[in-house]
Specification:
single chain, 626 residues, alpha/beta, Rossmann fold, 3 domains, six-stranded parallel beta sheet, 20 helices, 20 strands, 31% helix, 14% strand
């Protein structure tokens, strides 16, 4: 909504879709606001001109942990939005719970004291006081760039909903409320007593307003929303699930890839790298020069770099993402004397443009900006922030990486309410990428499984419909709510990332990312695997010529496919997924141990009894297939 004031100022208001899960929208609003600031140019004025405003309930503000997590982001680089205005509608009740049971602090707003926020307590029955508090909050935010809290103390005149009877739980309070005049009655009386208006003028204003509400209410009964109502101008031209999108090649000119690979291993003259980092960067340059043995980290850097040169902003956040949990990425390095940070992929071109989408990039030797930022130790708020960021502009690759795949558990509300269901509920597409390290490679039970079965279960797809798979008619991903991939080669991961941008639709993507493949000697690719004409492979063909050349001689009883250390066994019409350490699989483990995802292409068919398909334990997941 846009509103123009008499002095010529125009204000645009964006409303973020909000599920019933209290306060979970907070980081989404902050992320969307941060993206707007970034694409405007990311100056101090841009920070001031884009203002996130959050409305809270008193019990929710005090009780929901995501409020604290979101406020903790306020001063962190690349998450700082220049201050958020928090308005607590303090009804002094949480559904049926009194304040004495909903918090331990005197005020619902006391959380703000942890961040030295100014807190304005005002009377909800005094509209002038509320207005002054809001004006003061905005002025404070513009001057000092910090969060501000307004605690508007009021009451809930009726129950929590139309059928609720509040007298059941707060009889004394609601006896007092029934005798208390409304805010409108109090303010009208005040204006009349002051001589500001007459009773007739007050009635005229009241009638005009109520009639306007009635007209809008009646109009809402026949309102038909348009599919693009929720989309900003940046999303113009993107297709819905009902419109076919062709598969696009994602390969890149080999000379460009070699240039990016070399740049990914360079630092400015005089920049003192750690001695081990010197070896890592030298190895990157050698891989880029030879065009072979390209590992996971360099393939990712080439995907990022090629998108940047095409004008697409790339943003990666999460815990320890600059180095990478497993010390494979090194997207940001530090001088060993000064601790100055350097991001090699921001030196691909002479000019770094904050917002240089492909169709707008006109300056020569210009690239978009890469942001790789370690986040606070939070999953819920940070993933929500990145989801909000991804909603603003489709011409950007936005990624969030879990320290270990298991830790995404802490953000399950975001996955359920926004990422998995956002397009269906609110017509909002998002290309957010989740990198979830997965695999039983040591480090304990809480550092092993990203619970890929959860995401497979949440795929919105008809199991009784076999989608057309021809290259020019394939719409399976468009019609689903998200994608789950487990890449087994660096090149396929490269194409997977580029494919997110080189489409005319957007879908969230869950990447079951590896651990032991990051530096596995057999898990490497060549520049030709990422060169012109190459694309993402949904599956690799049989690599053994004895089998591929003589398919009639092979009698397959079942197929075993390994994804990291997850076993998928296909028997007739059922799939059984099991944890390798399940007792039922121990007798087969010695035979399967020779397999890793890096040798997936060379895997042979194994003759395993079909009785295995009936095995069930707490770590098995049974899925019916087509």
């Amino acid at each position: 909504m846009d509103r123009t004031y008499p002095d010529g100022r125009t204000i645009h208001l964006s409303l973020v879709a909000n599920p019933s899960h209290l306060e979970c929208v907070n980081p989404v609003v902050a992320g969307k606001a941060r993206a707007k600031q970034f694409y405007c140019g990311d100056t101090d004025d841009d920070r001031r001109n884009v203002v996130p405003i959050l409305l809270h309930g008193d019990a929710a503000f005090a009780g929901q942990g995501v409020v604290y997590e979101t406020m903790q982001l306020a001063g962190v680089e690349d998450f700082n939005v220049g201050g958020t205005i928090h308005v607590i509608v303090n009804n002094q009740i949480g559904f049926t719970t009194n304040p004495i049971n909903s918090r331990s602090t005197p005020y619902a707003s006391d959380l703000g004291k942890a961040f030295n926020c100014p807190i304005f307590h005002c009377n909800g029955d005094d509209p002038v006081a509320v207005s002054r508090a809001l004006e003061t909050a905005i002025e404070w935010r513009h001057e000092w760039g910090t969060d501000v809290i307004i605690d508007m103390i009021c009451y809930r005149r009726l129950g929590h909903n139309e059928l609720d009877q509040p007298m059941f739980t707060q009889p004394k309070l609601y006896k007092a409320i029934t005798r208390h005049p409304t805010t409108l009655e109090i303010y009208e009386k005040r204006l009349i007593d002051e001589g500001t208006m007459t009773k007739e003028e007050a009635k005229e204003i009241r009638d005009f307003t109520l009639q306007s509400y009635e007209r809008d209410f009646e109009a809402s009964k026949s309102y038909q929303p348009r599919p693009d109502d929720w989309l900003s101008s940046r999303w113009s031209g993107f297709k819905s699930p009902r419109q076919h999108s062709r598969i696009q090649p994602t390969g890149v000119d080999i000379d460009v890839l070699r240039f990016i690979g070399k740049k990914a291993g360079e630092v400015p003259e005089g920049f003192k790298l750690h001695r081990q980092m010197v070896k890592i960067f030298q190895a990157r340059q050698e891989m880029a020069e030879s065009g072979s043995d390209i590992d996971w980290g360099l393939a990712e850097a080439m995907a990022f770099g090629s998108l940047l040169l095409e004008g697409n902003h790339v943003r990666l956040t999460g815990q320890d993402v600059q180095r990478g949990t497993f010390s494979h990425r090194h997207a940001v390095v530090k001088d060993q004397d000064s601790e100055e940070e350097y991001t090699p992929l921001n030196a691909l071109a002479k000019i770094v443009n904050m917002s240089a989408p492909l169709e707008e990039r006109t300056l020569r030797d210009t690239q978009a900006k890469l942001t790789v930022r370690n986040s606070i130790l939070s999953e819920f708020a940070v993933l929500g922030f990145e989801h909000g960021y991804s909603l603003e502009n489709p011409n950007a690759l936005i990624l969030w990486e879990a320290q270990f795949g298991d830790f995404v558990n802490g953000a399950q509300v975001m996955l359920d309410q926004f990422i998995a269901a956002g397009e269906d509920k609110w017509l909002r597409q998002s290309g957010l990428v989740l990198l979830l390290p997965h695999g039983y490679d040591g480090q304990g039970a809480e550092h092993s499984s990203c619970r890929v079965e959860r995401y497979l279960q949440m795929v919105e797809e008809d199991p009784h419909h076999i989608p057309p798979m021809g290259k020019d008619e394939r719409t399976q991903i468009q019609r689903a709510n998200w994608q789950i991939v487990n890449c087994s080669t660096p090149a396929n991961y490269f194409h997977c990332l580029r494919r997110q941008i080189h489409r005319d639709f957007r879908k969230p993507m869950i990447v079951v990312s590896p651990k032991n493949l990051l530096r596995h000697k057999r898990c490497v690719s060549t520049l030709e695997d990422m060169g012109p004409g190459t694309i993402f492979h949904r599956a690799f063909d049989e690599a053994n010529p004895e089998i591929s050349n003589n398919p009639g001689n092979v009698k397959v009883r079942l197929i075993i496919v390994l994804t990291a250390t997850l076993i998928v066994i296909t028997v007739h019409s059922s799939i059984v997924c099991a944890d390798c350490f399940c007792n039922s699989f121990r007798r087969w483990y010695s035979a399967l141990d020779k397999f890793t995802t890096s040798s997936l292409q060379n895997a042979r068919s194994w003759n395993v009894p079909t009785s295995l398909s009936s095995v069930w334990s707490r770590s098995l997941l049974l899925l019916l297939t087509r």
